[in-house]
# Entry
Amino acid sequence: MKRLNPTRGIPRLRPHWELPTRPMRGGNDAYNDRQVAKRAHLPAVDLLAEFERNRAATIAAVEAADEELFSRHIRSAGGVTGPLAAVFHQVAVVHVLGHARDIAGPSRTGAS
# Structure
C-alpha cells in the first residue's frame, strides 16, 4: 500500500539558522516593483489564481508548523522583528490586506 504524505507540496517553515540573513535588495518598494514588473503581462484572473494558490499554501504551512515555533524571535527579510506570530501577522495579514485594498480600489461607501 502506498503511503500518502499529507504535507507533500506544502512549503515548510525553515529553522532560523537556514534563513537568509542579507538585507532585502532595495527595500520593500523595490521588491514590490520587481514583483509587479514580473507579472505585468498577466490578466487579473491569473493574478488572483496565484494569490489563491499562495494563500492556500501559506495556511497549510502555518497549520503544519509546531506551535512553539510561533514564539521564536525572528527578523523578516523586510526588517520586521519580534515573535514569529507577530511578524507573520504583520507581513502575511496586515501587509497583504493593504495589497488587497490596492487591488479593490477606492471605497465607494459614503459616495454620493
